[in-house]
Amino acid sequence: MFKTKKSKPVTELRSQQYLLCRDQSIPVTIIRSRRRRRKLTLQVGPAGAVLRAPFATPNADVDAMLNRNRDWIYERQQLLQEQRGAAPRYESGECHDYLGQPLTLQVCSGGGRAHVVLGDDTLLVSGDLADAKHVARVLQHWYLRQAQQLFVQRLRFWSGRLPWVADVPELRLRRMRSRWGSCSADGRICLNTHLIKADLSCIDYVIVHELCHLQEFNHSARFYALMTEAMPEWQKYKVELEAIGARLVRE
């Protein structure tokens, strides 16, 4: 049994509204956060837009941001809907996700070793590139390196917070199409490298899910009670991940 915990201050508030863009009403999720966020950021996916803002941002500033970008939101969503489910061709202009943010791929062939540069809203792959398959390998290797660094950090973080986890479990990474993660009977955790494309909250949800299997190696009522105690809003992140999952593993 867990000890009763004191209620924590609210660090994030979510709300939803709809933005009329030409002939469509596009859902917009507003996320106000107490994290070290200094400006408003706007992301667009096939199912709608997400606007992240500092906690005390006035509604007028949120509305102004949406109105200024109304046409861009519409055009971006149309492009993403067209690309959804289609296999990427690894050409400039395509959308590729990283940590929950849709980024525009830029391919620049030239001299030097092929590498990836992360921009504010772009992923630049440049260097000595033979063809689209080469671009794909370079980008996938970059995703793997980011996943190795971040997943280890988040696994250590959550292992230290959950009382039934004595030591940080061994971590393995694999590119998978049908599972986000798994936990073996001997306590080893495997995570899908495609997960690095999802928002950090979704990544944490999968890690917490697998860590809960160290205590309850099943999907019983006890397991889900453990999930709720560890991460009260896990169901929200599960739904979010399911909504974008097909796009993230299409490569």
Task: Output the keywords.
YgjP-like_metallopeptidase; UTP_pyrophosphatase-like; M48 family peptidase; Zincin-like; 2 domains; four-stranded mixed beta sheet
Q: Tell me the strand percentage band.
A: 25-35%
Physical arrangement of strands within the biggest beta sheet = 1-2-4-3
Structural class of the helix and strand makeup?
A: alpha/beta
- Tell me which CATH architecture of the largest domain applies here: 2-Layer Sandwich
Name of the level-1 CATH class of the largest domain: Alpha Beta
Any chance you could write out the topology, listing elements then pairs?
Blueprint: E1 12-21, E2 24-33, E3 41-45, E4 48-54, H1 59-68, H2 70-83, E5 95-98, E6 101-109, E7 115-118, E8 122-127, H3 132-161, E9 171-174, E10 181-183, E11 189-192, H4 200-212, H5 221-230, H6 234-248
Helix pairs in contact: 3-4, 4-6
